[in-house]
Amino acid sequence: MKNLCFVLTVSSGINYGSISSVPLIKNNEDLKEYFSDDYTVSTNYIKDKDKVDYLVVPDPFVPFENDLPIIKVPARLFMTKDFDKIANCIEEYFDKNPT
User: How many C-alpha atoms does 72 have within 13 Å on its Cβ side?
Assistant: First the structure.
Protein backbone atom coordinates (compact mmCIF):
# COMPACT_ATOMS: atom_id res chain seq x y z
CA MET A 1 0.00 0.00 0.00
CA LYS A 2 1.33 3.46 -0.90
CA ASN A 3 2.06 5.85 1.97
CA LEU A 4 0.66 9.33 1.36
CA CYS A 5 1.10 12.43 3.46
CA PHE A 6 -1.40 15.22 2.88
CA VAL A 7 0.70 18.31 3.56
CA LEU A 8 -1.79 20.85 4.81
CA THR A 9 0.58 22.53 7.31
CA VAL A 10 4.33 23.06 6.86
CA SER A 11 7.08 25.06 8.49
CA SER A 12 8.24 28.05 6.48
CA GLY A 13 11.24 28.56 8.75
CA ILE A 14 9.76 31.37 10.83
CA ASN A 15 6.25 30.01 11.32
CA TYR A 16 3.84 27.42 9.97
CA GLY A 17 1.80 27.82 6.81
CA SER A 18 -1.62 26.23 6.61
CA ILE A 19 -4.14 25.79 3.85
CA SER A 20 -6.69 27.56 6.01
CA SER A 21 -7.14 29.05 9.43
CA VAL A 22 -10.70 27.73 9.51
CA PRO A 23 -10.95 25.07 12.29
CA LEU A 24 -13.30 22.88 10.21
CA ILE A 25 -10.62 22.40 7.56
CA LYS A 26 -7.93 21.70 10.18
CA ASN A 27 -9.84 18.59 11.31
CA ASN A 28 -8.61 16.05 8.78
CA GLU A 29 -10.09 12.85 10.18
CA ASP A 30 -12.70 12.63 7.41
CA LEU A 31 -9.96 13.04 4.78
CA LYS A 32 -7.89 10.29 6.41
CA GLU A 33 -10.92 8.01 6.65
CA TYR A 34 -11.86 8.56 2.99
CA PHE A 35 -8.42 7.60 1.68
CA SER A 36 -7.46 4.93 4.23
CA ASP A 37 -8.95 2.04 2.22
CA ASP A 38 -6.52 2.67 -0.64
CA TYR A 39 -3.49 4.25 1.05
CA THR A 40 -1.67 4.56 4.32
CA VAL A 41 -2.51 8.17 5.17
CA SER A 42 -0.84 10.83 7.27
CA THR A 43 -1.69 14.50 7.71
CA ASN A 44 1.29 15.25 9.94
CA TYR A 45 4.20 16.07 7.65
CA ILE A 46 6.52 17.13 10.45
CA LYS A 47 6.07 13.85 12.35
CA ASP A 48 5.82 11.44 9.39
CA LYS A 49 8.01 12.93 6.64
CA ASP A 50 10.49 10.04 6.97
CA LYS A 51 7.76 7.37 6.82
CA VAL A 52 5.83 8.34 3.67
CA ASP A 53 6.37 7.73 -0.04
CA TYR A 54 4.46 10.65 -1.58
CA LEU A 55 3.36 14.11 -0.55
CA VAL A 56 -0.07 15.39 -1.56
CA VAL A 57 0.20 19.19 -1.61
CA PRO A 58 -2.43 21.86 -2.22
CA ASP A 59 -1.53 24.03 -5.20
CA PRO A 60 -0.63 26.82 -4.65
CA PHE A 61 1.04 26.41 -1.28
CA VAL A 62 4.09 27.52 0.67
CA PRO A 63 7.26 26.06 -0.91
CA PHE A 64 9.32 23.76 1.31
CA GLU A 65 12.30 21.41 1.08
CA ASN A 66 11.77 17.67 0.64
CA ASP A 67 13.06 14.73 -1.35
CA LEU A 68 9.74 12.99 -1.97
CA PRO A 69 7.54 12.98 -5.07
CA ILE A 70 4.87 15.67 -4.86
CA ILE A 71 1.29 15.22 -6.03
CA LYS A 72 -0.19 18.68 -6.55
CA VAL A 73 -3.92 19.08 -6.02
CA PRO A 74 -5.87 22.35 -6.45
CA ALA A 75 -6.19 23.91 -2.99
CA ARG A 76 -9.88 24.66 -3.49
CA LEU A 77 -10.60 20.91 -3.46
CA PHE A 78 -9.28 20.68 0.11
CA MET A 79 -11.21 23.76 1.17
CA THR A 80 -14.47 22.32 -0.23
CA LYS A 81 -13.57 18.80 0.94
CA ASP A 82 -14.17 17.39 -2.54
CA PHE A 83 -12.48 14.08 -1.80
CA ASP A 84 -13.65 12.46 -5.04
CA LYS A 85 -11.82 15.07 -7.12
CA ILE A 86 -8.77 14.88 -4.84
CA ALA A 87 -8.77 11.12 -5.41
CA ASN A 88 -8.96 11.71 -9.18
CA CYS A 89 -5.88 13.96 -9.02
CA ILE A 90 -3.98 11.31 -7.09
CA GLU A 91 -5.03 8.56 -9.50
CA GLU A 92 -4.03 10.70 -12.50
CA TYR A 93 -0.60 11.22 -10.93
CA PHE A 94 -0.10 7.48 -10.48
CA ASP A 95 -1.35 6.78 -14.02
CA LYS A 96 1.25 9.19 -15.41
CA ASN A 97 3.99 8.08 -12.98
CA PRO A 98 3.72 4.31 -12.52
CA THR A 99 5.89 2.81 -9.80
Answer: 6
d(CA 78, CA 82) in angstroms, rounded, equals 6
pTM: 0.81
- Residue 96 has what DSSP assignment? H
pLDDT tens digits along 52-76:
999 999 888 777 678 899 999 998 9
Rounded to a whole number of angstroms, the CA Rg of the chain reads 13
Cβ proximity of 76 and 61 under 8 Å: no
User: How many C-alpha atoms does 27 have within 13 Å on its Cβ side?
Assistant: 3
